[in-house]
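Q: Can I see a sequence and its folded structure?
A: Here is a first one.
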Amino acid sequence: MPDFRSNCPLSSALDVIGDKWTLLIVRDMIVHHKSTFMEFERSDEKIAASILAKRLKWLQKEGIITKQKMPQNKKTNIYLLTEKGLAFTPVIMELVAWSEFSLRESHSEMTDYGVATFILNKPEQTEVIQNSYRDFANTFDINL
């Protein structure tokens, strides 16, 4: 468990997931279905290997992801979201929506994640995104 700075729920959540790298790793898992160290390392944001390793260990310790051997290649570790981690889907999508509506004008090259569809129908779209990830994770024949 992390050392919590206060009893505020938002502050406590930020103690667990509040740095940019942690959120980007979770985004890569939810949105891009990344699951290996190499896939995370190749992200556009260019996370350093040492930071990536620390964040993956942290996410594992907090029960947000699991680390397992890839069934087809026991030399490769795969990282998969737990249900606790998958519960971040609406948080990630709300941050994407905020960015879309608040930053698009000054950053026109931003990737379009289809935020309008998400905003119009949040519960259903959250479920679609989560089920897409579950389908992806099930391709590894691993019980989460």
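Q: Show me another, different protein.
A: A second, unrelated one:
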Amino acid sequence: MTRLLVLAEGDSEELFVKRMLAPHLASHSVYATPTLVETRRLADGRKLGGGNRWPRVRDSLKPLLADSDAWVTTLLDFYGLPDDFPGAIPARTARTPDAGVALLEQQLAAAIEHPPRFIPFFALHEFEAWYFSAPEKVGEHFDHAELESRLAQVVRTCGGPEQINHGADTHPSARLHTLGVGFRKTREISLLEKIGIPTIRNACPHFAQWLSRLEALGTPSSR
């Protein structure tokens, strides 16, 4: 059995880990537990979470990395990273989005001194891109046939869900919110479940690479 601690940027990412990623990885003998980036602690000891500010991400990673019996990964968005995040500025101006996210993951690992059990990951360009993996499922979910063609056109134009870009009005979640169907990502986790991990994997190469790395943790010779 391999334990995996997942530092998640927000509530939707945490739900994804609990309801989709953890059950999938369990079949590979990898047992995933999500933790939200901690923003502040209340007087009664409860933690409030969510966000991507570098000091908060760094401080939230420390106790996870201190667990010598567990692997640690991140589920953070490439889009919207503040300038103080390691590698954020050069990553945004990299030759391609894939080169940018690779640089970002390298810089994150370097910033915390390359712990051996750490697998940095940023969704390209953000978590909501995965909803574009199956435009037909989005249309069915909202009972709105036109949505399928609209989303499919975006995917074709951009070259894939993970290539939907950084623009303030054109990043994945902005596009979803303009559909006029009241999209809320915490509520629509059921839609992502309908789409399913195999479909996301087929449509999103960067996600697929990360997932394969996590699955391999269940095989001792692959760690």
